[in-house]
Amino acid sequence: MPYLNVTDDAAELYLGAQGSELDEANPENRFQLEWIEQVTALVDEAIAARKPLIVSATGKFFTNGLDTDFVFANGDKLPSYLDTVHQLYVKFLTVPAPVIVAINGHAFGAGAMLALCADYRIMRSDRGFFSLPEAALNMPFTRGMAALVRTRTPDATATEAMLTSRRYGGDDAVSAGIAEEAVAADALLERAREVARERTPLVGDNQATIKRGLRLPLLEDLNTPTPATLL
Question: Which position among 20, 59, 87, 91 has the lowest Cβ density within 10 Å, counted as fewest Cβ atoms?
């Protein structure tokens, strides 16, 4: 299950299981409902610590996105499930502190979109892809998800990523405006911590106020209920 380490520099949220490369119950850190609840609660703990928030994981995946097992078995619950995912994005987009994502491995689909909710993104330069595979999987984007990609990446990148399902490595992601930096694996977390230390003076309620103003149309799209007609 996800866990939180609070240090002098930051609150570090890890999407996988503590003490192991892979969480046996959720090895790809997919958006299981219980997982979403756990991550949301940990973000609240991080906010209470009043420190910059770093988000990372261990193993092969940062997160592989939606819980497809749940989706395929519960079609009637899909709109409410997607609304729950949207609220996770809203949570990250409005944290009253700088949010830095250290993308340790693959970030696919809804997991890639979670990374876009951060204020600063750092990818590994040697391994791991950022990808939106929906087009290749014949899946639509929700209104909120389309708005998230459209407003958090350059237009040409959003068009390519959404329509072609391209996989971006670290350096490609920087060139495309998806990530701010790509660094070696052994430097990933320390670089995230450096950014956190630089931005520590910015922690406070005013960060959330500014973020809500900056991202108001996006937040409105994410808060719009998903219609049953989406699929």
Answer: 20
d(CA 227, CA 59): 35
Check: pTM over 0.90? Answer yes or no. yes
Distance CA(70)–CA(159), nearest Å, equals 28
Which 8-state DSSP code applies to residue 179?
A: -
Contacts of 55 (CB under 8 A, 6+ apart): 13, 15, 92, 99, 100, 101, 102, 118
Say if strands 99-103 and 61-63 run parallel, antiparallel, or are unpaired.
unpaired
Contacts 24+ apart (CB under 8 A), 44-50: 45/4, 45/6, 45/11, 46/4, 46/6, 46/11, 46/13, 46/95, 46/97, 47/95, 47/96, 47/97, 49/6, 49/11, 50/97, 50/203, 50/204
> Within 10 Å of residue 42's Cβ, how many Cβ atoms?
20
Q: Helices (H) and strands (E) in the chain — how many of each?
A: 10, 10
Please identify every stretch of the chain with a pLDDT value under 70, giving residue numbers as ranges.
19-22, 231
Domain boundaries 3-230, corresponding CATH code: 3.90.226.10
Convert the pLDDT of each residue in 80-139 to its tens digit: 999 999 999 999 999 999 999 999 999 999 999 999 999 999 999 999 999 999 999 999
Contact status, residue 49 vs residue 6, Cβ threshold 8 Å? yes
Q: Read off the tokens for 94.
A: 């409005």
Q: Tokens 């502190």 correspond to what residue?
A: 97
Q: Which helix (H) or strand (E) holds 131?
A: strand 130-131
